[in-house]
From TrEMBL:
GO terms for molecular function: aminopeptidase activity. It holds the Pfam family Peptidase_S58. InterPro entries: ArgJ-like_dom_sf (IPR016117), Peptidase_S58_DmpA (IPR005321). CDD domains: DmpA. It comes from Falsigemmobacter intermedius. This is S58 family peptidase. Belongs to the peptidase S58 family. It comes from the Bacteria.
Amino acid sequence: MSTNQASARDLGLRFEGHLPTGPLNALTDVAGVKLGHVTLQGDGLATGVTAIIPAEGNLFRSKLRGAVDVINGFGKSAGLMQLAELGTIETPILLTNTLNVGTCTEALVRRALAENDDIGRTTGTVNALVCECNDGSISDIRALGVTQDHAAEALKAAAPGAFAQGAVGAGTGMTAFGFKAGIGSASRLLEIGEERFTLGALVLANFGPAGQLMLPDGRRPHPKDLAEREQGSVIVILGTDLPMADRQLQRVAKRAGAGLARLGAFYGHGSGDLTVMFTTADRVEHDPATPFAPQRRLSDDLIDLAFRAAAEATQEAVLNALCHAPGTRGHSRYYPSLADWLKENQQ
């Protein structure tokens, strides 16, 4: 399965009035973020793992401030409850298919144990963070094809810079709005005061019934197969270097839903839609040197710019997931490429 399609912008979609993008227009525009994939194809499998390492160093010892916003909770992710309660992220984030959440969770736990001799002995346990979508429309999800070795390989492959999008890693078997979909990314630059910050989005897109997709120019691409119930999911990962408290991060995470709504999403009963957000600023030490730690945070009066960036980057990331993914045969139907539709319907 090829992933050599083009981005939404390369295919002529315009994002007029939007904030400027980072140099890569990707989550990895945020300094320190690394991303890696393992893609599994053959023997009925079209699945994989995508690993996001949100910052350098030992994440358990020096945690990131984070938040989660659950738009519709039909999902089986791991680690969200503690993230919502404590507002910190202490492992990399793995994306995979629904039935391999447990496998990837154990892989993250074993990684943290290897790095930290005190976990479960003289300090607490570790909160592994794994999110999922169901790729069963294309892959044999019952085969449980993802192993701990695959998760470890994706983590080892994680690197800064550009990365493959579309039908790759966790996105290999995903679909959206009746088209082939998968992994997509985008970023926005924010000028606040005299400083520049970056907000990046990565999506695992597997949601939306055929005929509901709305392009930025108002067109509604429609695959040939018509009736389709909304029962997919979408995972949005937002990262930034903008200093924010976990309450502010949760508020910004909520605005990813605005980006999804611009595309035509209505968060159906069977859809698992959520956003995980982190900031690389002002990390939280597991073993603090003093009882109190200073924290720099954005003024709430200026947070609208981050809201806007989250909505814009999420919208474009989903379109990039669709545009990078080639047409693919599923179990019961063919999922065409949005890139092909755009080429055939050039304005």
